[in-house]
Amino acid sequence: MYIAQMFCDFILLNWSLLSKEPSLLGAVAIYATNKITRTNRPWSPGLVKCTGGIKEERVKPLANELFHAIKNWEQSELKTLFRKYEQESYLQVVKVLEKIEMPRQNRTR
Predict the structure, then answer these.
(1) How far is CA 28 from the centre of its chain?
(2) Mind listing the pLDDT tens digit for each residue in 45-97?
(3) What does the angle CA 10 – CA 68 – CA 65 come to, to the nearest 5 degrees?
(4) Which of 31, 38, 40, 64 is deepest in the core (most CB within 10 A)?
């Protein structure tokens, strides 16, 4: 529960994501949570049905955008949310952010 809440909080810091509809943002938080806590599919047919037809192709790029933003914030001095989720009262869920795998960028020269 706290992991999805943490992703929702991080979404609130991303202006680009905030331009999306709330149901899609909720789906992004669920997808991001499932992506780093499950080894199998982060988006299932059941989730498509529960979200009114939101497909993984729509959610995945937004979750990747969120992951990139979080990784950038880790390098910045904006640490308030990181400190919040380091607390024992939030079960130190910030540790799961270490599991975020960023896609490698192809660099050709």
Answers:
(1) 6
(2) 999 999 999 999 999 999 999 999 999 998 888 789 999 999 999 999 999 99
(3) 75
(4) 31
Q: Which residue has the tokens 């939030």?
A: 90
Integer Cα distance of 30 and 56 in angstroms = 11
Q: Using pLDDT thresholds of 50, 70 and 90, give the confidence band for residue 109.
A: very low
Residue that has been written with the tokens 């993984």 in this structure = 56
Q: What is the pLDDT of residue 104?
A: 59
Identify the CATH class of 2-99. mainly alpha
Q: Tell me, what amino acid is at 7?
A: F
Q: Where are the domains of the chain?
A: 2-99
